[in-house]
Structure formats: C-alpha cells, structure tokens
Amino acid sequence: MTASDGDPQSHLAAIVSSSEDAIVSKDLNGIIQSWNRSAERMFGYTADEVIGKSITIIIPEDRLSEEDLVLSNIRAGRAIEHFETVRRRKDGSLVDISLTVSPIFRPDGTVSGASKIARDISEQKRLQRAADEASRMKDDFLALLSHELRTPLNTVIGYTRMLRRGDLAPELRDRALDAMERNSEALTQLVNDVLDTSRIVTGKMRLVVAPVQLPPILADAIETVRAAAASKGVRLDVNVAGELEVVGDRDRLRQVFWNLLSNAVKFTAPGGRVGVDAAADRGSVRISVSDTGIGIEPKHLPYVFQRFWQADNGTSREYGGLGLGLALARHIVEMHGGTIDATSEGRGRGSTFRVTLPRSGTSVGRLPGERARSDAAVVL
User: Is the pTM higher than 0.85?
Assistant: First the structure.
C-alpha cells in the first residue's frame, strides 16, 4: 500500500521526508530519534551519523543554554514557535534558523519527546542586515551632508547679513565677497556630487564622447587647484606628454582629474608635493596623481572608491567632504573603458592614484551604450 492509498503513517513519513524544512525528533534527554533529508542538507550530517546522539552536536557552545530552556518547556507540554537562533553545521559553519519545537504526547497524555522544525533563514537575515546597513549609511550620510552644508552656508549667510547692515569696513568687503564666492562654489560642488551619485544609482549619467586631447584637460584641472596648493605651500610637479588623445567626455574627464588633484592637495601638509604624470603606453594613456600626504593604511585601500566612505568618517573628522569624489571618479573612468587604482605604503607615506584610458583609435569596442557617432550622448 502506498501513502496515497490511505496509510496515515506512510503518508506522514512521505511528508516529513519531502519537506524543505529540517524535521528532527528527540527524546526528553535531547537524544536524536529521527532526522529527515532536509536536516541532512541543512546541517551536513547523515541520519546514521546523528541518530542516537545528543542534539547539542549542532548547537554552538555559546547557545547550549537554549537547549535547557527548550527541554524544560517540552517537559511541561509547551511548544516553542518561530524561535530565531543559530546552529552549527558539520563543517563548523553557522546557519541562521527559525525553530519551532512541539511536544510529542503518548496516548496517556504524557510527553515522550519533541519534534523540531528548522527553517533556514540565512537569506532573510542577510537581506535584513543589508537593509539595516543601508539605513545606517543613509542616516550617516544625511548627518554628514548636513554638517558639510552648514559650514559654507553659515559663512555665506553671515557675510551677507554683515554686508547688508554695513558692518564691514570697505577694506574688508572684498575679502568677504571672496569668502562668499569660495563657499558658494563649495556648496555647488557638494550638490553636484550628490546629483551625480543619484544619476549613477538610477543609471542616468550621460557621456558626450568625442576625440579629445588629455593635456589641456589636465591643465584645466591643475589650474583649478593651483591656488589652493599655493595657499598651503604645496608644490605641483607636472610631467605630461604632448600628444595624448582619447575618446571621451571632456567635462567628465576633467571632473575625474580635479577630484584626484583636489584630494591630493587637501591631504598633503604644507611644504609637501603633488605630482601629475601622463604618458602613452602602447594602446593606453596612463595618468598618475601622487602626493606626499597622509597616505592610506593598507587595510583601507579596498574601500577608497566606495561611496560615502572615508578613513576618518564622522562629523568631527579632520578633513571635510562627503566621500563621493573617488567613487564618482571610478565610475566615470570605467564608463570610458578605463581603470583606476590606488596605492600607498601606509599612513604618512603619501599615495598614488593611477588612471588608465584607451588611446583614441584603439580597438576596445564601443563605450557602454555608445551610438555609432563619436559625438553622441551616452546614456547609462
């Protein structure tokens, strides 16, 4: 007779055997009595390996007290439902599970043991941790954005009110206007970085590609940071070859090199040096921006291109910024079919960022989403 012919025990055995959840039974001393195929898959032990052994074989040492609690409830005839915990597989790895334990009653109503149903909730836990991390990052970013916006805004508002009231002497007005302009530009850059990040996330960042010479682009980026470097006493050493043509978006490439140079100047102490080198290398153009600044600890190098990440995170950190510049630079470089990487010998020993771009005329295929015309807009 098959289970479908009406044998209740065979039918129940078939259900237990085919269940996607691990189903285990044990006696009141915690000795395993049965172990279905899903339990074998979940925990790595075959039924022959565990039947007759204590259920503690799958319980981590720091959670053994849970078994005492479970058995005390079972002996009292009480079930435990949807208890989320962690169990240990045969290979030593841990698995997140949702556990339901029910007492098994004899015909006379006494408890003879317990049945346990365990469901693997590792994926749900992973998704929950990812959601929690995303929420934490959002909160941290909003706090950081508020902090970064407040300083230049306070400067602009403060000087505006002083000028309106006539509180500034004539000889100080030009200085006030310069400060307002600098801080307004800083605010504009912050907003642009946030908007560019949003465009990346939504897949709407655009490239307008055409053959361009890199030396003028690098020269523009260098001139943009020259005043900041001079005010700190940071020397700029430039060694750029004359003919370096790539196919790309002039403004976006300028943004990449401005980000790298402004970071180099910001993190370099007075009296230090920032170097810019660019040369052709077979089918590529290689550009490096190096500095003698604070450097990057080896453990931090894998994270420098992540959005919102900075080694000195927090609103009280020494250096400002949203931690978006390098993430944007990487995305733009990769949109051009290039690569970017960072190296450093450690804290206080400077850092080097290297960008590699395909030379114009190199057969690398079209950029992602590029149309046939070289001056077409690329929407990603």
Answer: no
